[in-house]
Records
---
Amino acid sequence: MLLPFKHVSGAAGTFLWRRLSWAARSELRARVPTRGCGERNRRLEDFSARLAAGPTLQHFLRNASPPQETRPQLAEEPEEPEPYLTSSILEELLGIMTVYLETYGCQMNVNDTEIAWAVLQKSGYLRTHRLEEADVILLVTCSVREKAEQVIWNRLRHLTALKSKRLRSQAPLRIGILGCMAERLKEAILHKEKLVDIVVGPDAYRDLPRLLAVAKTGQQAANVLLSLDETYADILPVQTSPDATSAFVSIMRGCDNMCSYCIVPFTRGRERSRPLASILQEVKVLSDQGVKEVTLLGQNVNSFRDTSEVQFRLAAAPGLSRGFSTIYKAKEGGLRFAHLLDQASRVDPEMRIRFTSPHPKDFPDEVLQLIQERHNICKQLHLPAQSGSSRILEAMRRGYTREAYLELIQHVRDSIPGVSLSSDFIAGFCGETEDDHQQTVSLLRQVRYNVGFLFAYSMRQKTRAYHRLLDDLPAEVKRRRLEELISVFREEATRANGAMVGRLQLVLVEGPSKRSAAELCGRNDGNIRVVFPDTEMEDGTDSGAVVRAQPGDYVLVKVTSASSQTLKGVLFRRTTLRESAAHR
């Protein structure tokens, strides 16, 4: 169906709409989201304006009137043919596609979701948080453990059933898999199971609009190519929660460590770092938006190395932590993590800076000293141990022994008094004996972490362990050992957190507690959850005033009780980072 649109008056716009078939009008109505939306209104206003400037009603009547008597035609330039409003143009103008994004896994996947949404938003997509409103459903996935992948498979089968129930009057529902699982299982996802329309790896989010365009034709589409240089440095992620008090900023992607159990180098590729300037620009934008805490992200965040400018390549390389080694040669030149941390903390003195996930090998003294000196860099470090057995650490290719790790822990605590520590542990790795397991138990007791992430080993294809080692522990042994590690961790974390009872903690307010509307929650400098009553308090930033805490406020809370995961307390007063640091 072809419809002229270039010079239509307002009245003719109504005439043009009536000329559309019932099916065409239903299609257009179905493709415009029912909820209010500024972007939708803008597009409809643009469409109305183009109709108002189009052919007049007389144009249609003239074309439809009976032939008049023949008159001699004057020689004149041929009239420019009327442009026509084809179905593809109608789709462009009124076919507003809505996308539903669902995120699984680590903080990097949260950041990936924000990057993917930034790309789609620029291409005219709208976002919905209601599954039934979506034209496109995208799952940002994780491949670190088998259980994480099974969750996605189950979700896909549910969504496929939803797809089959789609009304014929609606546009076909498209389903896509993004992230690590997309790269690892492309063939199985596309061909064996045939549950999705598009598959997009972590380095191909720029290609999303093209892949979705292909999918609209009824074909499957995929791009899972890994890149040696993609960092999305020029894409400003769109915050998933615009009113959030904290945000993630990706500073590097990929990993070169090649730990024998880890799939990350195969799903996210080699290490490459964003240019320093683009990171600082993003931090500044977030500060201007009122964000009060930024977490710098990377698979191996403290191995950051910016070589984007020639002069950076002459910088001296920092040494590794004492007793640590790598499987690769030392990388020369580049601005390093200490420089980035210094510059990021200077952007906004009232914005907290965190970083994750680091490798213990990359903690030179200048990083530890900077954390101690700078009041807005959180006194909290994540030091993934994985095991307390030197024999298992060697099999994991971690590059250190139990003794070297404990020496680093002591050095960190000497350098940053009161530091909060967290760690990762794997239960039941290949060849782990009961003695190896008990060494991990003793490490948990000796270090006494505040926060822990503990999992049973799950062998992943492509890894060195898959090719060289035997996954020889029964599932029930792994489960028992994991339960013992969790029990010991909770016991020791309760003791560690109990040391804060009676003390004031600086807390960034996040919002209402999930368990009670009468309580607020936030996180302290050590990244431990703090819950406290929503009561009036003194405003330490404006002497004499009485206020209530709001999301984004820094408040002092006196801790009254502690568990392995949560601190509880009472409000003392509102404050600032600077003021709080001055009274430590």
Note: Residues 1-37, 64-94 have pLDDT under 50 and may be disordered.
---
Amino acid sequence: MWGPPARGAALLRRALRRGLVPGRSKRTVCGGSEKAWVRPSGFDTGVVTFNSLSKKKEPLILARDRVATWYSCGPTVYDQAHLGHACSYVRFDILQRVLSRCFGVVVVHAMVITDIDDKIIQRSWQENVSPAVISRMYEEEFKKDMLSLKVIPPAVYLRVTENVHRIVAFIEGIIRNGNAYATKEGDVYFDVQSIGDRYGRFTGATGSHGEQGSSIKRDPRDFALWKKSKPREPYWESPWGPGRPGWHIECSTIASHIFGNQLDIHSGGVDLAFPHHENEMAQSEAYHQCRQWANYFLHSGHLHLKGSSEKMSKSLKNYITIKDFLQSHSASEFRMFCLLTKYRSAIDYGAGSMAEARASLETIRTFMEAAEAYMRGQLRCSPVQEAFLWERLLEAKSSVLKALADDFDTPRAVGALMNMIYHGNCQLQPVAVADEAACSPAVFGAMVTFIREMLEVFGVDLVQDKEADVSSRSGSLQAVVEQLTRFRSEVREFALARQDSPSSGSSGKPGLYPDRAPLLKACDTLRNDLAPLGVLIKDRGSTSTWEIKGDQESRIQTRTDGAEIL
């Protein structure tokens, strides 16, 4: 679960630095002005991944044996998280699961929570509460959303506001190394010219792109490390006067606090590559005086609403919150939606793409249920081609592993699974009479086991989805039965209404309207027809009760002058 930040960070840092994880490879600390990526030495995971630093696929080599240090940019907590956020976090959660469970790598993941920012301050003004109230509320909402999506929590998360003293010290180190300068106004800027042509490793970092700020910046590309305080804004004391951290410096400081001067993997959305990740690298390498602070940058593609070229974002007001999404879809459906595209690709969200994800899960579920029925002897089939299915299983295992080792190619891995399922379904053709001696349950057991293992790797839980679906359907059934019983009671009450005096020559019950007798008979027929279906209706005078067999909750419907459901 999401543990206390301070203690979790201390324990994690202590474990890494005292050697409580497998051995660490040597690292060359050097200067130089080259932008070229340097392949690290260490443990080769057997995975190749697209590295945004080299702009091509590279072998994933870790500094420590079977341990990956992984830092990700967390949320700025001023509002509810939406599907654009979910897409990035779920995709990287899948990558971490694959790396851990398929390739035996322990992933040590740290994440920052940005709990002080212009947007948080503005929201606090709107709500007339402190920024801390806003940030804590939406931080907890974010964590709940991630757990709902089955995202494994990081080993540690750290809030910016609890690390300002470290940020100040980090900035002081950059200034001492000659890579930053303070202004007379009380701001501190990173000096981009001081690192030569090493700035600009991500697309978009060249030219005169820069932050708006003081007119006395030395270069338009210089960016803020420390911002002087403004009226009504939170501030912290510093050697340059009261103020608060710039955006980029928080990640460099916190990642360095946990992992030191070497980081294996840094992840985030593609929109963060520039300027955020570019500036992170610049200030981190300036502080540590090294050539390559992070060895791999992995970037996920944007999520778009179907038919729109714009990414889903709060600023564009084109977002769907995670909570709203989960009202009509399951976490497993969203995960399958993510699995069907490469993590680096842009992804279109719409009814069609969600229907495809749901259909894929249903195909898997249907096959597993049929295979289990076959193994129990409840599904009779013609003799299966057992050797052929064993070959398809081995082929699927090999193809899935190769796909995942090739830049975590989940669409190809899912395709290999679905191909195996197709061949299995072809063999599970029901027949009226079958030779039980020719039954081959073992191969289907192996196929089902492999599917379960891979679904667990991907974080897909068909059992929980089925239970939720059954629960939802049970609730719907109860509502239908309740309305049906209410209608029947009204009809029955109408049929049982008595006349002031019996009709002459009537063969019906005294005082009843003879022409309403068929309605009573229809009510009895309905009650009798529902009983075999598990819906029991009991009539006691003007009172009707009903219950669904196997349901923990029964309903009592009473008809007097009005209707009351208890």
Note: The first helix runs from residue 5 to 17.
---
Amino acid sequence: MNVLSYVLVYRKFFLVVFTLLVLLPLPIILRTKEAECAYTLFVIATFWLTEALPLSVTALLPGLMFPLFGIMPSKNVASAYFKDFHLLLIGVICLATSIEKWNLHKRIALRMVMTVGVNPAWLTLGFMSSTAFLSMWLSNTSTAAMVMPIVEAVAQQIISAEAEVEATQMTYFSGSTNHGLEIDESVNEHETNERKEKTIPVPGYSNDAGKNSSNMELEKNSGTGAKYRTKKDHMMCKLMCLCIAYSSTIGGLTTITGTSTNLIFAEHFNMRYPECRCINFGSWFMLSFPAAIIILFLSWIWLQWLFLGFNFKEMFKCGKTKTVKQKACAEVIKQEYQKLGPIRYQEIVTLVLFIVMALLWFSRDPGFVPGWSALFSKYPGFAADSTVALLIGLLFFLIPAKRLTKTTPTGEIVAFDYSPLITWKEFQSFMPWDIAILVGGGFALADGCEESGLSKWIGNKLSPLGSLPVWLIILISSLLVTSLTEVASNPATITLLLPILSSLAEAIQVNPLYILIPSTLCTSFAFLLPVANPPNAIVFSYGHLKVIDMVKAGLGVNIVGVAVVMLGMSTWIVTLFDLSTYPSWAPPISNATMP
């Protein structure tokens, strides 16, 4: 038993050593560059899947192993760790830092929810829409972390309102009257009493001890039925939590900067096929936005039906008087919005820069009309989306946000400097350096596969798949990616599979976009487990969900997502990129299939 405990404690260390030794015969026996690169690939894949080492640490292994195996010189490997992608990421993080610093994200979310009304079904759709919109520009994780406290407050307010209605009915039947019942006061009073007895865990706002005690209290309340007065209240909390988790992921599909997997795909594709120049912010938005809208709408219907039922008659009934629940819900949203106060100068400037960045991205090279990049026709292809991101990002460090003052010895208050919209320290706290290193490691791994000839070898071995229908190949690759991303990180999954899928497309003489686009989109479909992605973990930590709830709901959303992607590949996406023919910018047949 002691030996087993020892092994469990040091399991990650043993896994690293075991993996390196077990796979070592591969390069020793075969003694080819392809085998040596395959050894590196298998080691990195194992470490990424098991997280025996931190993902970003594993991503540094190509810089160690490729020079030792003679696959690539060290300086060439190092150059792969900082690409155009990283400049784009820096500019986007500058925007995200300013948005979150000045609470613009919260104002947008609350305003959108106030617009759709307080009917439970429409309220859920409002939360999903606002979350998806924010996730287009912010990271999925920060979006979910920002919206969930608002959703939790609304959910608890609805439960409190129902308790107040029951108390009022009891008072009425006992013979007393209370015609002057004020919803706001009664709800707030009940909410105060509830807070004295129970604590709802909010990630990032309570310590570990508080979370543990809250979870214990939650289990206790679930067993006695005191936490949720009715099963419907519990189902509503589950519904709202899952809506936030899934919509924050779905929203990230729509823009290249919305999620790291999109950025990784764009950089990999533009490096592997530099003559294409067909993947940019505008073209990606046109292909992914319709898919995201359909997936979001169908997911809303699926989750609504699964947890609360879907009553069209109640949803579209006009002139219906608001219930006490709906009034309480509207009141808490209104109060949260009023706490923000009037819109400030810093929020206005951030919003303007945000709009300017989006417009410049869309108009750089829209495809159907000449974009502003045509003004620099002498240097075609030089200006990219990262150019726009850097331009706007630098402005956040330049534009004044407020004056800095000091008091002179005479008591006079004078301004001596100004503070910009964001500072370097604030930017550093938001910058995901681990993702930057992870993506760089993926680029280095892809370069090594090309230099060693492993990519061509894999493509040649996969060429028999060309006898299958293209739609079946797309379906198989999409299901493979969707399954793998449930147990591995999304960036690691897409980084690992992009070189392989590119080689497959070239070997069977199919437009690479035909396979890479659906695979990239499906990499984000990590809906089944709490550990599948950070938004799932955030909403799961609130204690309303069980794993089986997420599995049942996520399976339906996964099916919807893959089906919509397959539909898009046979309709609007095919016409958008002319995927029916093997393009001239891809490697010719002789090079693509050479062993």
Note: Strands lie at 400-407, 413-420.
---
Amino acid sequence: MALKASSGDNRTRSTVFLCIVIGMCCFFYILGAWQKSGFGKGDSIALEVTKRTDCTVLPNLSFDTHHSKATSGGSSSDLVSPAKKFKPCADRYTDYTPCQDQNRAMKFPRENMNYRERHCPAQKENLHCLIPPPKGYVAPFPWPKSRDYVPFANCPYKSLTVEKAIQNWVQYEGNVFRFPGGGTQFPQGADKYIDQLASVIPIANGTVRTALDTGCGVASWGAYLLKRNVLAMSFAPRDSHEAQVQFALERGVPAVIGVLGTIKLPYPSRAFDMAHCSRCLIPWGANDGMYMMEVDRVLRPGGYWVLSGPPINWKVNYKGWQRTKKDLEAEQNRIEEIADLLCWEKVSEKGEMAIWRKRMNTESCPSRQEESTVQMCESTNPDDVWYKKMKACVTPLPDVKDESEVAGGAIKPFPARLNAVPPRIANGLIPGVSSQAFQKDNKMWKKHVKAYSSVNKYLLTGRYRNIMDMNAGLGGFAAAIESPKSWVMNVVPTIAKMPTLGAVYERGLIGIYHDWCEAFSTYPRTYDLIHANGLFTLYKNKCSMEDILLEMDRILRPEGAVIIRDDVDVLTKVNSLALGMRWNTKMVDHEDGPLVREKILYAVKQYWVGGNQTAVA
């Protein structure tokens, strides 16, 4: 009997032991999977964020616009304390543009507008305070009312209402500026002017989608093109015409501070369907035609260049322009010579407007084949432009098999081109990005945007007019939210792994190259929403996270929103700094669940204005 009892006990112990072993195996398997996901590193803060996050509800984080002069409530984050609290800068910095600072600009040569180009402060000179909005600042009017009206308190500069009074640029009425849609070359309004263009250029059918306006004033040309589904990138310098680019952005029109000077434009080759100069004061015939050659670089094969104003039709207008016949004739002759050298075809000259068209390829330009005097650019990468000196040379076009082929590949009319595979990808010009990868990226961003809009329900409503994507990639975010209610500035960092900005333009979107270790070429408070995907990981060990966040705060409007997607450890640090910048924040899980290391940080900038006695001098 004793032997039988002992045998039964052994079987029981074996069964228990086996259960324990199986249980431990299951436990360590789950633990291993958890650690592999990145959450087993002992980061208690990240773990608490994961535990407490609700992907659909953000307690106390309001995306509403209040137009309030009172400071809104405290941060909604209950997990992280601010790393530091940033004080307001002095009120004199209200419209501070670090890389186009007027005092610094005067130290540089005036030749070829060098002093109006980007001249950024050394890192040790960066401000570590918050740029204050002016007293009385309110949210801009919604589009399309914003096209015609801007609150005076947001841009309190009346000089253009006097200087450009007879040209119908802008008028001051009570507590708002009104923009009648006029310009130096179209005092009767931009609509009639664009009608004249449309009689020659195929604007209505989607062939022309992206445009470049050089010396844009208050961007009325770009503003009125928008209703024709044409997206214009406008630029003008920060000069004596105070706030012209600021007015453009307050109106809800794409624009940056910029100038044709000594360095190349921050856009890829073959980007724009149309380029435009309306009395922009650029000396097109100077420097061996260098500026026209730069326009040729960024103009798409088959694209159009519009020049209105001096010296076009000089025989009739020379007295009004207060210049001699000889001077104006020589200028127009020189422009014509350079256009011939570039193999542009003049398709129209009527009144004070002339229009040229760029050839589709080099094969259709016999003179280019014959003339050895044409100086071709030696660079093998025409998109390598950041701080690169402009040269008087012609950018070669991609080779074609015959005269009927479009150099670089034909592009569909808009909106079909938005989701079509861009020619740069189809032709294998972006390493590692296939047509299948492009389609997969499109699908992913539609999924991301759906998740974003479930949290910030204003995302797709038009509440955010001016939107920036700080690390745009293939433009998937912009494509997923594309709407006449908003536009996106797609920024491709100069340190990005892939040269994708050309493909972004081939989708009918606009954007710019930029290095986020420096300030962006815009005024404060010019964007309603900022999106940043993997940006802080990209710039890790390149420059200060604090400097990038302060720049984001500078260009973000009060009550504007931020969406940052990055690794959880990175976002924890970002969140800590953001709380000290008067941002209300909340971190949420990835759409695929809490085991994914990538998280999303949502933020809203609190409303506040200048006049604080505790400001940093």
Note: Residues 199-358 form a domain with the Rossmann fold fold (CATH 3.40.50.150).
